[in-house]
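Let us work through a complete example step by step.
Step 1: write down the sequence.
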Amino acid sequence: MNPRPETTLDGLLEFVNQTRGFDFTGYKRSSIQRRVTKRMAEVGVEAYDEYIDHLELHPDEFVALFNTVLINVTAFFRDPPAWEYLASSILPDLIGARPTDSPIRVWSAGCASGEEAYTLAMVLARVLGDQAFLDRVKIYATDVDEEALEQARHGAFAPRQVEAVPRDALQRFFERTDQGYVFRKDLRRCVIFGRNDLVQDAPISRIDLLVCRNTLMYFTAETQSHVLQRFHFALDNDGVLMLGKSEMLITHTDVFTPVDLKRRVFRKVLRPHSPERTREITRESASSMSRSLADALRETAFDVAGIAQVVVDADGSVVMANDSARRMFGLGVADLGRPIQDLELSYRPVELRPRLDEVSALRRGVELKAVSWRVPAGQERFVDVRLTPLLGDDELIGTSIAYIDVTDAKHLEAELTSSKRELEQAYEELQSTVEELETTNEELQSTNEELETTNEELQSTNEELETMNEELHSSNEELETMNDELRHRTGELKDMNVFLDTVLSTIGLAVAVLDRQQRVQIWNQQARELWGLNSDEVEDRHLLSLDFGLATHLLEPILRAVRNGSVQERIVVDATNRRGRAFRCQVTALPLGSDQDGSASGAIVMMEAVDD
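Step 2: predict the structure and record it as tokens.
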């Protein structure tokens, strides 16, 4: 029995795609390999085929793998200046340019567990007001991770997750529960969560604001370009795109132009387009027209032509599609007369709208060679796409789009190129062999010197890595020591507070300890019993501002005297206890510590009932 060939990373990714529908081929290779290797190390396997066996035996491992690869890192109001700029500069103009009753469509792409989508909801509700938000706003939040989406739909977050939410927003938009905080149910209905693969699935259309932060950076440059074209299609003409701090669009100025590069806000680049079409052409109206025999022959020849062909009018509406085109793109009678941007063929196998705009503007044909197209059956096909302007009286009346299948020619060309390459390689190898025989000794000596140099470089690099590792280890030990000291000191402080509270309670007098500004720092049990005020009602508040049964303004002279250096001051005043009973209260003030100028850093105030 032959041993099973060793599985590569590509084999693992193909297995994941076939079993769970996750296609990671568009992600950066180094990032994918690093994240998969990390997960394999955590489960204790080294080879990819062993990890495939582990996935088959433990289906729950897929969730852990996806969480590791997709890196669901998000937070409320991440990068606050960007959100402030969005609320103050972008949204007012965006909303002001639309009628007061028109819907506002927002797409949060790569929303992970929902924090960013709910941040968008809070920002828009602040700008519009709650009722206008409920009436007009729809936020579509998408991700490829179903587990993260399920968590996002609940809108429930632990206290540590909402630490970045401003206090007023937390009170306005969240409801407190035993476990944490839940986003308001009425506003949550305006946030729609769903699965969407930015690489494979169709984009959401007519979007006013598209937020995709720190997601594109995980894709290859080719995949990023593909996704950005979809974003361009998704956005309305004056739509705005907001990216994360780690992403730029310097090489994509043809689709997006920066509004504020520092905050990664971009606006869609408009392309020339035809005005709104003024009529719909249907199959019934076409059949009702009187046609000559020549017209019928032309239409029949057009319909049975072996090349798939679609004709759109000057307004961009589909007028005709022959039999090959209808079978190739699944077009029906209902699709005739529809705008081409509403059909899948407008962006698959190639984005047609910018090419149609080019034909309209320049009045000349456009040809795209060997466009790759993966048909629904899974096979990869190659087609030449030719756009030809149809002119009448020197005016553009439409555009013919022809799709020529060149898959076989492409394969033959690839085979011919491969054969030429192999022949060239064979000739080069032969020539190299002759040269190697003539210069063997010199090359061996040179190779040996290069190997020695490389070995020294590798050794130096290894030493640097070891040094860095030792430094990191030392830093970790220092951090652990600091944490231990912090925990120890926290325990000591807690014990000291308990001891101090016990001492003050044992005195038997109502005691209040004040700081230099006469703010209450300690309020013992007897004080709570005497005056009916709890510690949390008085601590950090000025003693003279408290409202209880003692005329505190009478204490100001003795407190001033103690603060200025007096050893002890005493006064007896009329008072009323927490039960409403009148009594004579003796108030004694003592200095607490002293500063370099001889003044007290605080005061200890003792209060007790005395007989007249």
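Step 3: interpret the result. The CA atoms of residues 549 and 576 lie 4 Å apart.
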